[in-house]
Amino acid sequence: MNLEDIKAVGNLLAKPQKIVIVPHKNPDGDAIGSTLALWHYLKNRGQEVRIIAPNDFPKFLKWMPGNEQIMNFERENSQSKTLIEQATIIFTLDFNHLGRIGQMEPVLKESDATFIMIDHHQAPSDYAQYMYSDVLMSSTCEMVYNFIEFLGDDDKITPEMANCIYTGIMTDTGSFKYSSTTSRTHTIVAALIDKGAENTKAHNLVYDTNTPTRLHLLGCALKNMVILKEYNTAYITLSQDELDTYDYQKGDTEGFVNYGLTLHGICFAVIFIENKEEGIIKISFRSEGNFSVNEFARKHFNGGGHTNAAGGRSDVSLQETTEYFISLLKDYKTQLNA
C-alpha cells in the first residue's frame, strides 16, 4: 500500500464510519482470521463495524474470538442488505473480484460506500478505491498485520487479534511450509505469539478436532485417488452420494487435495467435488515448482488463485469434468515433467 493511500485511509478511519467487512464465499481460515482481526481493530478504534460473510464457515474455525459476531448473508439476508446499504466503508478481504461473493455481488455493486481491498491473489479487478494487493504475501492475515502497522497501531494488537491473525497465516501457509512463507512471515508470527497468540491451541483447534465421519470421508477420497504417472499428476473425486454417505459438513474436505502432493514425483494434485445443490463440480488445484495452477484454472475451469494453489468449477457432470481434465494434460506434459 503506497504512502498516499495509507494517509487517505488513515484520514477516513479518523472519523466515525459505518463499516462492513466482507470475506469470500465459503470462507477459509485466512478469510475468517483476517476479517475478525480487522473487526477487533476497528471496533477498538470506536468504529461501528460488522462482518457479513456470504455463507457459513467451517466449525473448526468457530472458536476464534468474535466469530459469533459474523453475520451470514444467506440466513440474515434482510439485515445484511440494510447494513450494506448504510455502509460508508466496505472492506473486502481475501478476494479481489466481486464474483467471489456469490449472491452478495449485486448488493455490493449497488453500494455507494468507499471500498478498500486487502488481498494476495493474482489479477485483481478494479472495484476498490483503495487497494492493498500483493501476490507475494503468504496470506491476507499477514497483510492485515501490515495494514495495522502501516497505520502506526501495531502496539494495539490484542491477544484476540493475535490469535485470529496467527490462525489465518498458519492455515494459508500449510503450517508455514509453503514457499510464500518468508522471514518476514516468521517475524510477524513471533510478534503475534509475544502479543498473546496461543499457537499450540490454534493448531489443535483447527487440525485436531476431526469427527469419525470426516476421517471416513478422507479414506473414501484416498481410495478414489487416481495417479497419472505420465503427467506426474494425481486427482481425487468425491461424488455427492459419497459426501452424503459420510455426513459431509462444511470444511470436511479442507486439505484433502494436498495428499496428492505427498506422493513421490507428483507435482500436480487436483480434487473434484460434486455439489448437486449448486449444480457444479468444485475443483481445487495444487502444484509444486513452476507449474501455474492459477493459469490452468483461469484458462480451463473459470477459476484462479495463486501459482501453486487455485480453485475452479465445472458445470458438467463429474465424469465429464474429469475426462476433460485428463484430455488437457497432454498439452502440459512438458511442463509437468520439467
CATH topology annotation of the largest domain: inorganic pyrophosphatase (n-terminal core)
Strand count, sense and closure of the main sheet? 6 strands, parallel
User: How does CATH name the architecture of the largest domain?
Assistant: Alpha-Beta Complex
H and E order: HEHEEHEHEEHHHHHEEHEEHEEHH
Apparent shape = globular
Number of helical segments with 4 or more residues? 13
Number of domains: 2
- CATH-assigned homologous superfamily of the largest domain: inorganic pyrophosphatase (n-terminal core)
CATH class of the largest domain: Alpha Beta
Question: Helical amount among residues, as a percent range?
Answer: 25-40%
- Give the N-terminus to C-terminus distance in angstroms: 36 Å
Question: Care to count the β-strands?
Answer: 12
Give a short summary of the structure:
InterPro entries: DDH_dom, DHH_sf, DHHA1_dom, Oligoribo/pAp-PDE_c-di-AMP_PDE. With 338 residues, the protein is of the alpha/beta class. It is built from 13 helices and twelve strands.
